[in-house]
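Sequence, structure tokens passed on for absentees:
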Amino acid sequence: MKKFVTTTYRITTDKIKRHPLRFVMISDLHNVVFGERNDPVFEKIRALNPDAILIAGDLVLGKEDASLKPAAAFLSEAVKLAPVLYGPGNHEQRMKLFTEEYGGRFSAFEKKMKQMGVSYLENERVVWQIKGETVAVTGLDLPIEYYNRGPQKGPGRKELEGLIGRPDKDVYEILLAHTPRFGDDYFAWGADLILSGHYHGGIMRLPFLGSVISPDFRLFPRYAYGEYRKKDNTPAKRAGRRQRVTGKEQIMITGAGLGEHTLPLRINNPRELVVLECLPKEV
């Protein structure tokens, strides 16, 4: 049976005033099923009792012969455990855009998601109250060309503002941005917490060298896995294992994902469920 690990990040922020919040982040499931109907995943989520489940893209597998039933089954169980907010990845985007290839399957899937109560966020933002704390979640849907291989200039802050508006400086802003490739631009946009996937943890991770290759065949990709911080105008840096995120730093977390496709290879890079403990500064 396929296995996964749980990685927990503790984030301290002065935008959460009194009550700690817990989120589970899922990325890159790609129709993979753990055990019977993903029971091991749901048992873990149930035990964590999160305030929300955040999906950072690629729950589906965007191939012509791939079914959407595994993703629909996953969501139908997930919504029983917590509110689900879902930002698209390149596989969702591909299936929705290229109807000649995929037909209307994704439109039907999207309709089903809404009926379940899933918040599917395509360049949309929701603001809601959790335990008296105000949190905003935005799902970024970049134009498809930003997933092309080869050298690529990022969208920049202005283009991001055109797609998703500006963040509210007084609200804890979470950005679901599937590809971590443009981390510098996400930081510039102003998110407090950026959640990404897409690179599957770098496929292979080596001591001291980190993530080796991305699914789009880029060597040693930046922001490929783990926790990164940016404070003021200083460059973003990878956070050490024993360091605690504090103060007004911006945080980016890239998960290794729960599944894979095409290159089903993982070396020192287990499948991963990410847990986010967002704490008031005083805790």
User: Anything to note?
Assistant: Helices lie at 39-48, 69-78, 90-97, 99-102, 105-116, 156-164, 183-189. The chain has one domain: 5-280. The longest strand covers residues 5-13.
